[in-house]
Structure formats: C-alpha cells, structure tokens
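Lab notes, practical 5.
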Amino acid sequence: MTLLSQGTAHDVLTQVYINPSDWQQRPLTSFVLDDHVSIVHDDASREGLVWSYSLGLSKFGLDEVEMFTEKGRSDSTAKELLSASAGELLRVGHSPKVGTSLDLPQLGRTLHVKNHRTASPAGRMLGFRELKSS
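Output from the prediction step:
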C-alpha cells in the first residue's frame, strides 16, 4: 500500500498519515508509546466538557482510555494522565475492570476506572474505560 501512495501510510486507528520523512529507524529493543497511541481532545461531544481519549490501544487488544474535564481547563493534564495510563495498560497487558484503581507511580497519581462503554470517534466502534482522577 505504501508503494501505491509513494510511501505515505495511514494508521487507521490513530487517524494519522505518516510520510517516509517521518519514519525513524529504531532497534527492535526500543518501544515508543507515541508511535502507536495518540491522545485526542473533543470539546463538542458533551456540553461544558472536553472529552479526551486515546486512540491506538486497540492495536494491542486493549480498550482505549478516556477522561472528561471541564471546558477551560488545561488539556495537557488530561494528555499526561492518559499517556501514562496507556503506558501502564500496555505494561500490564490487560484492561482494568470498572471499580479498580490504576496506579501511576511516575506521576504520583492514582486513577479510578469509573465506566466502560463503546463509542466510535474514528468511525470504528471501540471500547473505552473512563478514568477519574482522585
């Protein structure tokens, strides 16, 4: 497929186009989360709230993670928490159950899994675990 598009690849799950100039050669011993998972913010899905969510965890057989924050607050906090949560889920290898906690020692935070639902933000139905900061 990249031959037909002159090297440009489209990651269907993260909705990102990647050009050959964007590719970085890495040894198989390194794994960079940002190469596989992106964090998206949507301020139009619920009135007064910003929906922040991951795209890409489903490549690894995991549910995506999401948070809802009030409009006007910094998106960087949600991005940091969701990125750390995605990394932790990849480390443990399974999606947490509703009602359990997710410890993020690198941030000194604990998040709680509040809800499980499905949604299709990228045109494909995905499972989401809603995280709430304590």
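Observations recorded by the TA: The beta strands are 9-11, 16-18, 38-46, 49-55, 64-70, 101-104, 109-119, 126-133. The CA atoms of residues 62 and 95 lie 6 Å apart.
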